[in-house]
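Human: Note token order:
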Amino acid sequence: MLSVLLYGSECWKSTANIEKKLKVFQTKCLRRIMRIVWPNMISNEELRHRAGASTISEIIATRRWRWLGHVCRMPIDSMPRVALRWTPQGKRNRGRPKETWRRTVDRDLKTRGPTLQTAPAIAADRTKWCSLAVSSSTRRRRED
């Protein structure tokens, strides 16, 4: 179910509304799979613990992190790497969404340490890059 639901999720912008809808869907599916019905009330955290599942937000953030590392290891003139550095000129039209994929990545980078400028140097070392992804997801679980 997750592979179909999260297809291409590493390229999604991440808003609170999108994350909430995905979290509700995951919880609903887990409750059906585990056959937990209305009279048997358990918390969502207990449900995820019993199922051995991570939150959808953590899974998407990890996928986004892996994709960012892949892009940072690409040659400088490759299209994804150029698109990562590209900043359009001018202002956004009125009513356009302020949250973008790049702003989502910047927010992820702030929680994990590196900046967008230092990320390519860190991503060159795959083990260090992967350790940043793992340490961040375990840190989020402890905060919950």
